[in-house]
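Q: My labmate handed me this sequence with no annotations at all. I'd like to see what the chain might look like in three dimensions before we decide whether it's worth expressing. Could you predict it?
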Amino acid sequence: MEPRPGSGDSDASRRRVSRLPSCRGAGSETLSKYTKVFERVAELAAERKVKTLMGIDLAFIDAYRRMRTDEGAAAKTKYTETVIVRQLVTFALSRNLLAIDPLRGLKLKKPKPTPQPCWTPEQVIAILANAPETVRSAFTLLAETGMRFGELAWLTWDDVDVEANVLRIRPKEGWKPKSGDCRAIPISPVAQQILDALPRRWRWVVTMPPSATHPATGRQWTERRLLNGLKHVLTGLDFPGKLHTFRHAFISNALLKGTAVAVVREWVGHVDQQVIALYTHVHNNASQTAMQRLSEANQQLQKEEKSCERKEAWCPTFVEQPGKPTTRLTTRHGRSIQRPSLVFVLASGSSDSPALGE
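A: Here is what I predict for the chain of 358 residues:
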């Protein structure tokens, strides 16, 4: 195992990573993530004096997980990075670089999704109202489409299909959507107003404003700078959240308004069932309103049942009187039948109900 490469080796590291089967055709963010994991593995291997892939065994994985825990990595991050190391060993086995599997018996249990902050529609409105003009367009498009930040940053005017009234999320040179989510998002009236107001002088739909450090115009947004703008707004409103919370809020609001899960998936791309359940945040106001509707419906049902019982208790009925003479009738087809003598009573469940007449 080589020691952790220096910054000058980053390009070479990325080229090596890109040759892995799991990274073929991957975007720059994925390659960067894999490269960082392999650099951490190389650093730990140097500390533990591991020189070959056979040294990446179960004890090594335990040590890697402890190291990442000490660094504050979340459970999901540790799981993902362990999967990447597992893929590295599997690749070596497939190329006969290893005779046996040093990670045999490794169990990978995917952690449950953790609750994420989610804004109510009213909170989203407050965020947009308090956002400066420089970031409001970007925030509004995130709120109206459920796009991820990368999808917004790489959105070009060629992706705005005016005739079909959709935004097309599709790969470009140097970038592709997460999980290959090529899709079309309908343009809402609010999103259309934003698009109509934006200048079309540059390739990107939304661009960063110039700054003293970067005076050039028309540059793509960086996640850090747009997040800083959002943090400033959230601090003033005392709201939790991040850029991805716009996506959470969009999905949650769509599901609460009765939009089918299949339709939501078409709009936002890949979301597994566990995450869909996590996104279905029932905000307190919506929860209280739903409970009130249920209570009112139950009360109405009880009233109807009691009313029905009263009607059934005094339902008018015809009963036959034994010993009374019968009446002979002739049908229109000439058939002769006998009609028993009937009496009209109020059937209250009692046998001695008063007769009202024959």
